[in-house]
């Protein structure tokens, strides 16, 4: 398998017919009409290179894979990485550009039962900003090697933050509906 | 002190002269020209009510205060909260609407030494999306009572996610530059 960084960057596009979710609602799902205007704008500050080029190939969550991924920060913003090398872990925000945004209640294929969007980590949400904690392996210029991502190759990068155990780590947190499901 | 929810919502605005950072750079700071166009748009899906109406009053980080804050989700998206009540903790994304966006190296007042934006949790960043872990106290209709926020009253809400200890909690993570500073 070729290294992700050697492959050409996939084009940015919306949902891909046949591969992404379509417009039909599953039983129990609820769509909300979206506002007519955006309230704020995001810059893509880089792209994320991963081994996964189709939605179905992505791991279900970031702990299901130890694949090394590469975060490529645009040259314009690369000076912002100064000091990042001293972090063991980072919080990475990225834009799930292929997800629809109008479902407030949804039934992900692997869960079945419908739940509120804000009780799920599904990419389908009004603002499809994902947040993943990654382990930092190395920094080479504007490129970070990390473990802990589960997104598509070419995913747009939104932000990188240092992960502080003191404020970000809550080891005994419980997601009740999920715990009940796996108990 | 009146409860935040009784006060009128403060208007949304950019940096406030005299209170927010101004355009001058401190020694060592570096500004990057921002792209001419946004790549994606955000909807404000609600507002956050906190006791803090001026930047200087906000706690330095979310663990410095046990003030109860209220997250108010717009009616349009309120059905998305179904199931959230079963979570002990949430990851809340919000928009730091009063921060400038062009600094890639910055010297926050309380740290002095300049560091890359992506090694800091400063609100000043190309995409001023903050991520805070909160403890959920209660849900009443479209309102969540939480502890663990440090933002201004009226801050626009971007997303709410369930916090999974299995993927989000890394208790032994270290931010090297910060650890060296406090050691």
Automatic annotation (TrEMBL), chains A, B:
Keywords: Methyltransferase, S-adenosyl-L-methionine, Transferase
Cited InterPro entries: TrmO-like_N, YaeB-like, YaeB-like_sf, YaeB_N_sf
GO molecular function annotations of the record: methyltransferase activity
Family: Belongs to the tRNA methyltransferase O family.
PANTHER family in the cross-refs: TRNA (ADENINE(37)-N6)-METHYLTRANSFERASE (PTHR12818:SF0)
Residue segments, region Disordered: 1-31
Protein name: tRNA (N6-threonylcarbamoyladenosine(37)-N6)-methyltransferase TrmO
A Gene Ontology biological process term: methylation
Top-level taxon: Bacteria
Keyword Transferase among record annotations: yes
Residue intervals of the TsaA-like domain: 42-172
